[in-house]
Amino acid sequence: MENLSNLDYASYLKGWIRTVPNWPSQGVMFRDITPLLQNPKTFRMLIDIYVHRYMLEEVDLIAGLDARGFIIGSVLAYELNVGFVPIRKKGKLPFTTVAEEYELEYGNATVEIHTDACKAGDRVILIDDLIATGGTMMAGYNLLKKLGANVLEAATIIELPELGGGQLIRDAGLDVFTVCSYDGH
């Protein structure tokens, strides 16, 4: 049996993240969390890191960004016994929404949230799988602020510091928690 007590959990989990060169476009090093999620031990370790971080906090909701933020966020919300709010790509939500446009590392996009997804003063953790340029996370943060939420922290599995997104978010006044970081390619 493998003894993980002497291992750095972030390094261990990082070993389960696959790098896919030139996807979805030339020059992009895509960090694929699928192998990490496929392994029950590493998936549980990941969720437990977040649970232990937030279990003593007063959290009302977990807001997950489309689409991989849904996977992590919904499980975390379940474990913390709080609600889950999806922040979706444009045109995917059936009720009245507010929208925010942003730039990605490789294009532009718009995300939306239902107007009744949260109420003023709700304490929210915003979660996604990765911060690259920070556009998606900032768009989600802006949407939650428009609805009056108090966003406690942005949480991700991965940060790509060379792309500046984590710093952009921190400069906007939102704390950022990431499990592992990739410098360079």
Automatic annotation (TrEMBL):
It comes from the Bacteria. GO terms for molecular function: adenine binding; adenine phosphoribosyltransferase activity; AMP binding. One of its GO terms (cellular component) is cytoplasm. The keyword Transferase applies. It catalyses: AMP + diphosphate = 5-phospho-alpha-D-ribose 1-diphosphate + adenine. It is found in: Cytoplasm. GO terms for biological process: adenine salvage; AMP salvage; purine ribonucleoside salvage. Residues 36-160 form the Phosphoribosyltransferase domain. Pathway: Purine metabolism; AMP biosynthesis via salvage pathway; AMP from adenine: step 1/1. Keywords: Cytoplasm, Glycosyltransferase, Purine salvage, Transferase. Its main location: cytoplasm. Its EC number is 2.4.2.7. It is an enzyme of class 2 (transferase). InterPro entries: Ade_phspho_trans, PRTase-like, PRTase_dom, UPRTase/APRTase. HAMAP family: Aden_phosphoribosyltr. Homodimer. Catalyzes a salvage reaction resulting in the formation of AMP, that is energically less costly than de novo synthesis. Belongs to the purine/pyrimidine phosphoribosyltransferase family. This is Adenine phosphoribosyltransferase. The lineage of its organism: Bacteria, Pseudomonadati, Pseudomonadota, Betaproteobacteria, Neisseriales.
